[in-house]
Amino acid sequence: MSLRRNPATLTAAVLAAATLASCADSQRDDGDGDGGGGSDDGTFIFGAAGAPEMFDPFYATDGETFRVTRQMFEGLVGIKPGTAEVVPELATEWTPNDDGTEWTFTLRDDVTFHDGEAFNAEAVCYNFDRMFDQNEAGQTAGEYWGYVMGAFSNDAENSLYQGCEAAGEFEAVISISGPTSGFPTMLSLESLSMQSPKALEEGDANGIAAEGEGFSFPAYADAPVGTGPFTFGEYDEANGTITLARNDDYWGDAAQTSELVFRVIPDESTRRQELEAGSINGYDLPNPVDWAGLESDGNSVEVRDPFNILYLGLNPEANPALKDLNVRKALYHALNRDQLVSTQLPEGAAVATQFMPDTVSGYNTTIEPYAYDPDEAKRLLAEAGAEDLELTFAYPTEVSRPYMPDPEKIYEALRTDLEAVGITVNVKTASWNGGYLDNVTAGKYDAYILGWTGDYDSPFNFIGTFFGNLKENDFGTEAYPWGKTLADDLRAADAVVDDAERGAAFETLNQQIMDEYLPGLPISHSPPALVVGPGVDGVVPSPLTAEEFDTVTVGGE
Amino acid sequence: MDKIDQTDEPTRRTSYGQRRKDRIDALAAASIDEEPGISLIRSAWKRLRRNPIFLVGLAITVAFVVLAAIAPWIAPWDVTASPLLDKVRPQTNPVPGPEPGHLLGGDDRGRDLFSRLLVGSRQTLVVGVFATLFGLLGGLTLGTIAGALGGWVDSLVMRIVDVLLSVPSLLLAFTVASLAREPSQWTLIIAIAIVQVPIFARLLRGAMLAQRSSDHVLAARSLGVRPWAIVFRHMLPNAMGPVIVQATLSLAVAIIDAAALSFLGLGNPDQRQPEWGQMLGLAQRYISEAPHLAFYPAGCIIVVALGFTLMGESLREALDPKSRR
Amino acid sequence: MCVVVVVLSMLVFGWLRSLPGGPVSAMLGERQTPERRAALEAALGLDQPLPVQYAKFMERAVHGNFGVSTKVLPGEDALDVFLSRLPATIELSFLAMLLAIALGIPLGYIAARRQGSYVDTGAVIFSLVGVAVPVFFTAFLLKYSFAVEWNLLPVSGRQSTGVDATRVTGMFVLDGILTREWDASWDALKHLILPSVALATIPFAVIFRITRASVLDVLDEDYVRTAEAKGLTSRVIRGRHVLRNAMLPVTTTIGLQVGGLLAGAVLTESVFSFRGVGDALATAFREKDYPVLQVLILAAAVIYVLVNLLVDIAYAVIDPRIRTR
């Protein structure tokens, strides 16, 4: 969205995308119905893997919902398209006070909500207070707020958010309890987007209730009002389509297509077939196996920079032998990760040297990857007296994540390597929602594969999530003598105000984690892709998988 | 056929699973014959010998069983090794194609596809045979108890059996398999076996009832032979004909159900030892780029299931007293 | 029937909660920690003992409130989710059954009249192949050839995006006819063809075999021979005697196939991303949407019972003997 204020960036991005698209020679004539229309008109139809939960991003948790709401809502800060970098959006600039607890945001003065309400400091504070002040059901459903802010109004002293004040018509001051690497970056989260105060009030937006096993949402959740380039049209549940219309009064450059449609197609191979048939214009996360075929059929596969990590988790509480650092190092040396990356992961994937991708601040470039060395692995195992190590090693089924397109195959490769150094592997599996995650958090597996896609550019969002919570983490770091030190150090590093200093602190921590602690084995980063059909231009792939479709054009030229 | 079934109302045949029951009962009735034993089989064989459907089914079945038995020795490659792994590239070459020494190429892990198909027959047979065997044993126990004891035990057992029969078989197997905390080859086998239990139970019980009043049983009883001895020596052996027929048909159903369950992710989690249903399930991801990965195991499943079905159906027709008229 | 539903609801309720995983995992994903999990479980009442949960469920259920969907259509009443998906499945099953009947009965009749001929053997083998091929594979083959390779029919979904359609009943073809939006109706029908053909394979095979068998039985009956001896025209014999009497078991079968159709619909709807009850069931199972699963399973049972009731009635209409009893 910053694009609109940076015409140069926009041009560059569009050019880049156009070049990419034109590499794939477009053979198909796109005059056939759905995709038709002029260059600044027409409909962009995107094949979604699942239906959105509802349309209030504050209560949403899944990518399919955010993909839709992202087109209608904007936050105070935004993400520069194609990067994970924070840029101005509804706020043009922000300045902290000296101790980093009071942040003054200068707002744009030319923004109105879709319902005609003015966007100003009061609206901003209304939004924050609304998010802060949740009933019991809202506190569990408003998961991202809970995740980044820690607490709600009923537990105000434990909340990062402390209050919001309108200092002028277009000047809002937000107070937080202490500095953290995540603020104000976290304001780019889709859940913390700005919504129309009037619509929130009229639709009883906070009237969420737990009913039976689910949450029932208020009327507002079906009629969202934001400031973005698209406005809500309709959700045809029977046919599984969501239609958004162009916001003609948008403050920036108006969207290129007059309509944006999301069509729910749960099956991946069906999405590909629909694209080939020309009835959708694009879809997310094409199977890497299909990339070459899709390209040769005239589509363009847009590969995002990896912003994720796949790791092999180890749990010393489930298997005491793993408490020995040499055993963990032995496991790491046993893995042929180069072969795994080249034979099982898409192009652009890389072997991981630490628990975060290189685009995150605090990434340590000097860390060398553990070499593939089965003999060294055997030696270390022998030294630790664990030659006949038995490992209960699990993988999830019925799931595909950006960092692991096919868990079963990745698992098979890792397992083969482990067995090659004499480790006995007990194969365990469960479906993702059918017990796998439960068993991982409950510490039922000695070893497991899991990963993480970053929410925003913050080192703490990666290693803080993994090891920052001493009592409850999947790596069981509490069982290690250094577990508490690591958790404390992470929190301390996160609270450093100065960017450079903070980065250095995290670099040191990354080095320590890999050399001295090794609570788990980082495996790889893989690039998720999205694909668009012939004639579609202007898609800027985002490492955060947060594409905005207002720059997309659909046409035959 | 309703004549032998005294407990059920004969005309209102619309209770659940009635059609399945009818088929089973018809088969059960085949066990009583004026001259039981050898001559029945002989006369059936006489007709079967000239039945092309039976012969085709027999040929497929025999070929499959022989293949499954010798597969590990004739497979050109070790099925767990990945000789073609270095050729696998997720985008450009996800599934290595045929080349000298690899008749059908490799799978997504660079393992020899032809060898895996060959050896896969063995696991498939194991699943089919064990599922049918367990189903048979369960059905034998229930059916014998019900048929031999009669009375309220019979009513109770048969009520349960009828309820189970009314549930579509795949749905029942799916339910049982998903109940297991950790899927494995054995949970798969047990899930399919449980679906087979009511079929065999009803079949055996019907056969028992039919024989209760037959001459040889009456004769044995009047000679003072103990009841259980009558059941095991006289009634059971005579019920074996229909049981064998049903077992043949059940094998086909077991193999198809196993494929469907594996396809749904409820099969053996260890993908190292090949099994056709599981190979088919894993091939889904490659359906656009390498459909042959799905077609081979699917073709094998279909042919084998067809073989068992053809053989079973013609056996049944041959044993059916009606068609012998 | 009420008792059956209550008992079934208890079983379903207990069964779902005994499965590993749950809606909380589905909501939290990688973000799951024991702490957050506990908070969410407490908010949703999943931490209470089973009997308490069940009592609450029943209390709401008697007021027509079956709980709120967690994932299929979050925030919506589970019963509404079912009702909104039902028209699609009715449309699909209806067409599939129509196809199965339209093909199965004539073919079964012809095969029986010419028993032993090549036509008969061919038709029998064809029907057995239909049984041996797993439904999901049939569905996939149809989609691959007609929609992907030859581009004759739409790949998936119920209606093309951009088609202007008014919703009346939720059955898109019917809606188009009612509102005279012929384009919308035609478009929806095109989307229905492949899934209904795939779904029809199983009932077709069964209907065909039953028709064939019962026509064979009837042809052998004395009254047909008498009619023939009386010199009645073969048309009269066919219509009044053979077909009418042979239809009795066929009617029953058609009713009983409805259960099988539901099972098949789960697989077929998944392959064609067809938003019906089967698709909702698959999603609800994958995402552990308890309220929706409960409603869907109970509704399936009720429908099953109702259809059997209808079959009873149809039976009475065809066979006057039942009415006189």
Outline of chain B: elongated
Q: Helicity range of the residues of chain C? A: over 70%
The level-1 CATH class of the largest domain in chain C: Mainly Alpha
The H-level CATH homologous superfamily of chain B, spelled out, is MetI-like
Q: What gap, in angstroms, lies between the N and C termini of chain B? A: 15 Å
Specify the CATH class of chain B.
Answer: Mainly Alpha
Would you tell me the overall average pLDDT of chain B?
78
Which structural class best describes the helix and strand composition of chain C?
mainly alpha
Number of strands of chain C: 0
Count the beta strands of chain B: 0
Report low-confidence residues of chain B grouped into runs of 5 or more.
Answer: 1-16
The CATH topology of chain B corresponds to: MetI-like fold
What is the third-level CATH name, the topology of the largest domain in chain C? MetI-like fold
Count up the helices of chain C: 14
Primary descriptors:
heterotrimer, B: 325 residues, mainly alpha, MetI-like fold, 11 helices, elongated, C: 325 residues, 2 domains, globular
A few lines on this structure:
Chain B has 325 residues and is mainly alpha-helical. Chain B has helices at residues 18-29, 38-49, 52-74, 113-149, 151-166, 169-179, 185-212, 215-222, 227-263, 276-282, 292-319.
Q: Care to describe what's here?
A:
The complex is a heterotrimer of chains A (557), B (325) and C (325). With 557 residues, chain A is of the alpha+beta class. Chain A folds into 2 domains: 7-263 and 529-554, Periplasmic binding protein-like II (D-Maltodextrin-Binding Protein, domain 2, 3-Layer(aba) Sandwich); 308-525, Dipeptide-binding Protein, domain 3. Chain A contains 16 helices and 23 strands. In chain B, helix 4 (113-149) packs antiparallel against helix 9. Chain B is elongated and about 80 Å long. Chain C is an all-alpha fold and 325 residues long. Classes of the chains: A alpha+beta (557), B mainly alpha (325), C mainly alpha (325). The interface between A and B is medium-sized, with 33 and 29 residues. Chain A: Belongs to the bacterial solute-binding protein 5 family.
